[in-house]
């Protein structure tokens, strides 16, 4: 329950002043809880080129967001394959009586899709026959294409995401090599608190070397760095910048304090920082480290306040990117955070706020330069053109062979599959012969004496008057025309016989197929 006159999660001290509980700070009139999540750290050497051929042609970022792993592509391939096989199984249960139904047309076109397995099928006698296409072969051919396309997509995805590997090599550094590392360095740190830059003291000194050693030095900070402080909604932010900085061979220390002001105590609950390095001649690439620091441990909330130093340790080391036109960057790396004085009990914090001796928040940035070695970075291609073609050929062979094995097993165990193409071909030939026969009747009726040709009697139930004889032409029709047209001359009859012979020569095969199907 909140103390009278103070917001929730706050307490009263010195009779009239309010302070937030440990781990909380004033934000917009209330005590906000600061809790840094584990995913706030980020360390990178952002030096990859921003424009590549693949990135300009293909939306690689969108592809990576959609396909976060190989499992997504493989699952999509498996689902498509199962749906296709289920579709082919379902349509086989549909009864097909003639070649006019939509189901027969679908099954026929599936058999036409037999690209891979149109050879070496079983017959009833177990012998190998000439090339022929079957519905089962078409089903497995399309299944092979689906599997091959899915596996090829996974291969291309791996080629895009892991087309090269980064190789690191270390070599000893000397003074001339280190002088080539000229970077623009920038360090920003925000003290999460209710304070402002008016609490800041002591940001004016740079210490180099280790105290007590011969190389220990103290310099004015302004001679090396540009620094300033500005206020944010989460607390004061200190910015340190150095242009054209070379790699020094000693450790650096920069310290500052936040002190109590009248009715405004110096307290903090955490820190947010970022350290970036850019090549002075190439600002398109940079190396950086950023993160969030808090004092809580094991679920115990704490507030920074007291004389002990809060030390943030950053290690810097030179890196040469040979694959980026010999780009040279100083890589920052977060090493350690040593928390200073902190309070976890509200009573202890109240006692500290009522005492002026502990009214301070000390912070020190400790930068150590690991310049004894230079890390050289290069990229080596993982897959060459020959390797890629070999992988594609292996995927193709695997896709074809696995369904060839299934086809052989089906045709060896089920006799119906051995002659299913014969049944479909017979239906197709009968329907084709019927269409050709209908065209012949229409041709004869349109060319000679349409009034004397009774089309109603030319239906499938009455073929006796218009039966085609492959050896004698159109005999009954000729006799009917003679009876109905006695005035026809011998010249006309010879024209009719010649036209009939020419048509029989042109469409003889279709008529013969129709006559054989009737028999």
TrEMBL record:
Q: Where is this region: Disordered?
A: 457-519
Q: Which UniProt keywords apply?
A: Membrane, Transmembrane, Transmembrane helix
Keyword check for Iron-sulfur: no
Origin superkingdom: Eukaryota
Q: Which PROSITE patterns match?
A: PROKAR_LIPOPROTEIN
The membrane-spanning stretches of this chain are 71-94, 140-160, 388-408
Which intervals carry biased composition (Polar residues)? Answer: 457-470
Name of the protein in question: Uncharacterized protein LOC120261399
Instruction: Provide the taxonomic classification.
Output: Eukaryota, Viridiplantae, Streptophyta, Embryophyta, Tracheophyta
Q: Which gene encodes it?
A: LOC120261399
């Amino acid at each position: 329950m909140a103390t009278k006159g103070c917001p929730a999660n706050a307490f009263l001290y010195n009779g009239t002043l309010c302070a937030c509980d440990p781990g909380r700070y004033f934000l917009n009139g209330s005590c906000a809880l600061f809790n840094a999540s584990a995913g706030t750290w980020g360390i990178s050497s952002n030096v990859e080129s921003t424009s590549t051929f693949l990135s300009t042609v293909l939306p690689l970022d969108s592809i990576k967001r959609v396909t976060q792993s190989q499992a997504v592509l493989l699952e999509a391939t498996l689902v498509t394959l199962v749906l296709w096989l289920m579709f082919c199984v379902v349509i086989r249960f549909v009864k097909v009586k003639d070649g006019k139904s939509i189901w027969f047309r679908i099954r026929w076109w599936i058999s036409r899709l037999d690209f891979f397995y149109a050879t070496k099928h079983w017959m009833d006698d177990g012998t190998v026959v000439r090339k022929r296409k079957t519905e089962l072969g078409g089903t497995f051919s399309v299944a092979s294409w689906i599997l091959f396309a899915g596996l090829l997509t996974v291969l291309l995805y791996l080629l895009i995401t892991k087309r090269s590997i980064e190789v690191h090599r270390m070599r000893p550094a000397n003074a001339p090599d280190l002088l080539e590392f000229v970077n623009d360095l920038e360090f920003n740190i925000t003290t999460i608190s209710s304070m402002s830059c008016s609490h800041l003291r002591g940001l004016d000194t740079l210490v180099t070397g280790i105290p007590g050693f011969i190389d220990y030095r103290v310099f004015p900070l302004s001679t090396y760095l540009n620094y300033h402080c500005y206020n944010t909604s989460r607390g004061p932010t200190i910015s340190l910048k150095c242009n054209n900085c070379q790699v020094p061979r000693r450790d650096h220390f920069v310290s500052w304090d936040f002190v109590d002001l009248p009715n405004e105590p110096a307290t903090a609950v955490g820190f947010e920082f970022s350290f970036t390095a850019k090549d002075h001649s190439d600002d398109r690439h940079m190396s950086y480290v950023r993160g969030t620091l808090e004092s809580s441990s094991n679920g115990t909330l704490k507030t920074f306040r007291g004389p002990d130093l809060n030390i943030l340790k950053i290690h810097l080391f030179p890196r040469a990117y040979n694959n980026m036109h010999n780009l040279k960057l100083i890589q920052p790396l977060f090493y350690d955070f040593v928390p200073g004085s902190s309070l976890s009990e509200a009573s202890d914090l109240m006692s500290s706020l009522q005492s002026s001796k502990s009214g301070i928040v000390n912070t020190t940035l400790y930068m150590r330069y690991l310049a004894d070695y230079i890390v050289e970075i290069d990229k080596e291609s993982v897959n060459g053109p020959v390797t890629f073609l070999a992988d594609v050929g292996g995927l193709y062979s695997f896709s074809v062979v696995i369904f060839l094995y299934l086809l052989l097993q089906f045709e060896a165990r089920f006799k119906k599959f051995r002659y299913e193409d014969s049944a479909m071909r017979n239906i197709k030939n009968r329907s084709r012969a019927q269409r050709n026969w209908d065209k012949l009747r229409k041709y004869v009726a349109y060319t000679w004496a349409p009034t004397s040709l009774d089309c109603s009697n030319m239906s499938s139930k009455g073929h006796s008057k218009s039966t085609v004889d492959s050896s004698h032409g159109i005999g009954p029709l000729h006799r009917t025309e003679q009876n109905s047209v006695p005035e026809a001359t011998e010249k006309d009859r010879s024209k009719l016989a010649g036209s009939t012979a020419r048509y029989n020569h042109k469409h003889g095969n279709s008529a013969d197929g129709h006559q054989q199907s009737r028999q």
